Amino acid sequence: MAEAAADTPFRVGPVLGRGFGLLFKHLLPFGGAATIMFLPIAAIIALVTTTPMQLNQLMWLIGAALVLVFLLAYVATAGIAYGTFEALRGGKPGLGSCLRQGFSQFFPVLGVAIMTLLALVGTVLPGLLIGAFGGRGLLVFLVLLSLIPMLMVMTVLWVAIPACVVERPGVTASLGRSAALTKGERWSVFGIIVVLMLVNWGISLLSNVVTVPLASFGASATAMAVVGGLVGIVTTGLYTALNAVMAAVAYHDLRVAKEGIGIDTIAAVFD
């Protein structure tokens, strides 16, 4: 994949085009890194379908699995970011190298993820607290209204994890770095996010094509749960990989546009 020339303007189309191209060209390592985060959920599905257990045991297992999924999701995101930069400079990232890089950046990336999550929750929480005392109509209105600042925060912080993986400045500095890089280009970044949301919606519709017909064939509830869970793992893993690739490509293009920094300089940290 050829490196963009210095001072190339940041554009939505090239980011999307190269992002989709890189994902499908390296689908095995990127998709594998994203899907591996759901192994705890797959283990729960297998255990529940083969071993009777009490409700409290099931709830504890589900809780533990969700925590592991949350942690592994950011290992995958960091690893896919590395793989994207490696692919941009013409390398061939493998699943093993993506996972190694992901685990090597685990704690700072997790810190960035938690801070981002808190920032997003902080945009919705005031509306929830106020709406809780004002009736359902006010609650719905305030939650919908809070989507605007939430999307703004998401846009500002969208390249924080790639910045953390490459520049390694620390948690809060990674957030600030994302804010600086996206400044002046946030409508374009927001456009990319909207496209990805639409893709996620499309993927969800396609997953129903697989799971819904099972009911008409008289499939058991267990079979439907297993198939639905596996389809969910694959589709969510694919969407996670796509988001990670797009954020990394956008980070690269923002640095090219704003700083004239190319992929060889960006990826040199991994050598």
Q: Provide the gyration radius in Å.
A: 20 Å
Specify the oligomeric state.
Answer: single chain
- Tell me the number of strands: 0
**Main sheet: strands, sense, barrel:** none
Tell me the distance between the termini.
Answer: 18 Å
Question: Uncertain runs with pLDDT below 50, 5 residues or more?
Answer: 1-5
- The run of helices and strands is HHHHHHHHHHHHH
The outline comes out as globular
The portion of residues assigned to helices is over 70%
Mean pLDDT: 83
Q: Please report which band the strand proportion falls in: under 5%, 5-15%, 15-25%, 25-35%, 35-45% or over 45%.
A: under 5%
Instruction: Classify the secondary structure makeup into a structural class.
Output: mainly alpha
Q: Report the total helices.
A: 13
Characterise this structure:
This protein is an all-alpha fold. It contains 13 helices and no strands. It has helices spanning 12-25, 27-35, 39-50, 55-88, 95-104, 106-131, 136-156, 160-167, 171-182, 186-211, 213-216, 221-259, 263-267. Helix 1 crosses helix 12, helix 3 (39-50) packs antiparallel against helix 4 (55-88) and helix 4 (55-88) packs across helix 5 (95-104).
